[in-house]
Amino acid sequence: MRFRLRIWRQKGAEGGRLVDYEIDGISPDVSFLEMLDVLNERLVSRGQEAVAFDSDCREGICGMCSLVINGQPHGPDRGMATCQLYMRRFKDGDVIVVEPFRARAFPPVKDLVVDRSALDRIIAAGGFISINTGSAPEANTVAVPKQNAERAMDSAACIGCGACVAACPNAAAMLFVGAKVSHLALLPQGGPERDRRVLAMRAQMDSEGFGNCTNETECEAACPKEIKMSNIARLNREYMRASLLAEDYTASKESA
Amino acid sequence: MGVLSSLLTSSIGRKILVALAGLLLCGFLIAHLGGNLLLIYGEGPFNRYAQGLEKNPLLPLAEVGLAGLFLAHIAVSLKLRHENRQARPASYAMQRSKGGRSWGSRTMLLSGLLLLSFLVVHVWHFRVQEHADGLYRAVMNAFQSKYYVLFYVAAMAALGLHLSHGFQSAFRTFGLSHPRLLPMIRKTGFAFSAAITVGFALLPLWACFWAKGPR
User: Fold this and answer.
1) A195 close to B (CB below 8 A)
2) With 70 as the cut, is the pLDDT of residue A256 above it?
3) In this complex, is the C-beta atom of A232 within 8 Å of any C-beta atom belonging to chain B?
4) A233: pLDDT confidence band, cut at 50, 70 and 90?
5) Which structural domains are found in chain B, ordered by start?
6) Cβ of residue B88 closer than 8 Å to a chain A Cβ
7) In A, which residues are within 8 Å of B96 by CB distance?
């Protein structure tokens, strides 16, 4: 297969433009990232600089790959990451525009690579439980309703890739934060730090410069793990609950 | 951080504020439409209703409250919008929906600004200006102009579009995510938007084309 790629090239934090590359002899069975690998090999053999892009596991579970492909984070299909996108999804001769995730909170590093550590700092602000959970407890000593276990698992499927931010017209991180708040809020182990967690994570989210959610639901459509909008609603509930009822004011002061 | 300051400074708090003001304004729309429908009953009932409102000693208080709701809804929305613009300084060369946005959600700013301009004209014309012949005649005369009718109908269409996203979005902001209730709220929102648009837009059309008013 042959394609015309229009790839965003950027040397450092500033500037950048779309550069056209013709590529041919691509097997329909290679993934999008492998196609970029082929492009890079050819560029390097011609003495040109390779296109920088993020990837790691290449099996859709690490959250490292990104890319906005033809205007859509992780490409045209639902419920998959860029590494799971295959070239047979495109037509021979297609023009494919490849851009980085764009948000103020994701400063560009080079070409298609952006710094997504803002998401890590939100987790560090409260997306954890402080107790040592020890070894697996005796079955049924801690009662967890089946639905809650399922919902918590669904929320915990978030791989933190940042596609929700990239897809959001407002560059908001509410789906990510919603998922991270939800999977702990739904389980008894997350209970003791429930209020402190949501207040601190909300404060960190705002200070990172993400936008504000307007319930466009683009994030849900772009999420490779199909995290649901209900996580955002739960984040809103958790935040209201903590703001109105939290007795642990030290936590809310810390985050102020 | 106190509850009040959190409401005014945090992203979620300010969204709740916009949603709350928006829903309260929906309540005002219902009351307003109810009053407007008295036009159909003729000059007497409508003017009696209008004068009754004006004489009510609580009216100034209600008006201040209403102005406050509008101001909060508009000012905080614009502030959030400004932040959202800043949150993506470099825009995409190509951006395509993956299937989430609606026409209503895309056009919230546009429909909102159209409604704001409508609001200024509307309040100036029917509230600030004096009407010696009574409000009924003022309304019926104003709607003899087809341009004025067109402006009204366009503004009400914008209102419908605005509500089609705003109504359900407000409930999401309040944390509603029930798998059966939320679709019901969405449908209710669409029905409410349609009813409000048709209700308000019908009166100028009626006054212009069908009413045998006092000419």
Assistant:
1) no
2) no
3) yes
4) very high
5) 10-87+107-210 (1.20.1300.10)
6) yes
7) 70-72
pLDDT along chain B (215 residues), means of 10: 75 94 95 90 89 90 95 95 94 90 92 94 86 84 88 94 95 91 93 95 87 55
Beta strands, E only, chain A:
3-9, 17-23, 68-69, 72-73, 95-99, 108-110, 113-114
- Phi and psi dihedrals of A22, rounded to 5? -95, 135
What single-letter amino acid sits at A218? E
Predicted confidence at residue A131, as pLDDT, reads 81
Prediction ipTM score: 0.89
A169 touches chain B (CB under 8 A): yes
3-state secondary structure at position A17: strand
Confidence label for A147 from pLDDT (cuts 50, 70 and 90): very high
A159 near A225, Cβ under 8 Å? yes
A186 touching chain B per CB within 8 A: no
CA–CA dist A158, A174 (Å, integer):
12
Q: Domains (ranges, CATH) in chain A?
A: 3-109 (3.10.20.30), 117-254 (1.10.1060.10)
Asked if the Cβ–Cβ distance from B101 to A216 is below 8 Å, we say yes
Interface test with A, best of B5, B6, B76, B82 (most A CBs within 10 A): B6
Query: What's the pLDDT tens digit per position in B32-88?
Result: 999 998 888 888 898 999 889 889 999 999 999 999 999 999 999 999 999 999 999
Please report where in the chains the tokens 């045209």 appear, as a residue.
A76
